[in-house]
Write a structure and sequence with these properties.
The complex is a heterodimer of chains A (about 120) and B (about 110). By secondary structure, chain A is an all-beta fold. Chain A is built from no helices and eleven strands. A five-stranded mixed sheet of chain B has the order 1-9-8-3-4, with no helix packed on it. In chain B, strands 2-7-6-5 form a four-stranded antiparallel sheet, with no helix packed on it. Chain B starts with 8 loop residues before the first strand and ends with a strand. The chains are: A mainly beta (about 120), B mainly beta (about 110).
Chain lengths: ~120, ~110
């Protein structure tokens, strides 16, 4: 059973360019969250997609956008790249508990990440 | 979202038990406490989750006092391979229609010494 897969694993861009990162969630998961992790820092929440809609968003500018497809896979797009966008971008999938009351908190399964370097 | 506070780093010798404490004073009634482990250049990996008292699985134990304002991750007999960053997260209780988010702090960097 494949876990979360992300592509590409590494990429280099120059300032002002645009980048698209892709994520396939773990089988059976329907929710995808994206995180940015700068060197030496904890992952910072970018946004989350469920039922093809952005449900939550962290403190990131509109240059960061995303999409979720009917098969639950997701893309993260970053426009007008800045040097400060250099980071490890992590995709995490989870499954929303049933509507009959909250039974535990959602456990995230992370991919290995996409390492973006902006020159 | 409940904020968490953890020690920045800890050192331990191989074979010892390691306890990492996390403070979360404003935890909400519906919040759960979840710990993740992260190795360099990898995504975080789920370790354990609990709501109150004690939870144990094959890799760790989680102790949560009655007031739930803190929690302690206990790793028995650590080895060199346990050297990693450990994150304590609070929240992400299901609130309907998948609307939730998890906030990571800076984590605790555990170094296991031979």
């Amino acid at each position: 059973d494949a876990g979360v897969t992300q592509s590409p694993t590494h990429l280099i861009k120059t300032r002002g360019q645009q980048v698209t990162l892709r994520c396939s969630p773990k089988s059976g998961h329907d929710t995808v969250s994206w995180y940015q992790q700068a060197l030496g820092q904890g992952p910072q929440f970018i946004f989350q997609y469920y039922e093809e809609e952005e449900r939550q968003r962290g403190n990131f500018p509109d240059r960061f956008s995303g999409h979720q497809f009917p098969n639950y896979s997701s893309e993260l797009n970053v426009n007008a790249l800045l040097l400060g966008d250099s980071a490890l971008y992590l995709c995490a999938s989870s499954r929303v508990p049933g509507l009959a009351g909250g039974t535990g908190a959602n456990v995230l399964t992370f991919g290995a990440g996409s390492r973006l370097t902006v020159l | 979202l409940a904020k968490t506070t953890q020690p920045i780093s800890m050192d331990s010798y191989e074979g010892q038990e390691v306890n990492i404490t996390c403070s979360h004073n404003n935890i909400a009634t519906n919040d759960y406490i979840t710990w993740y482990q992260q190795f360099p250049s990898q995504g975080p990996r789920f370790i354990i989750q609990g709501y109150k008292t004690k939870v144990t699985n094959e890799v760790a134990s989680l102790f949560i006092p009655a007031d739930r304002k803190s929690s302690t991750l206990s790793l028995p007999r650590v080895s060199l391979s346990d050297t990693a960053v450990y994150y304590c997260l609070v929240g992400a209780s299901y609130s309907g229609a998948g609307s939730y988010q998890l906030t990571f702090g800076k984590g605790t960097k555990l170094s296991v010494i031979p």
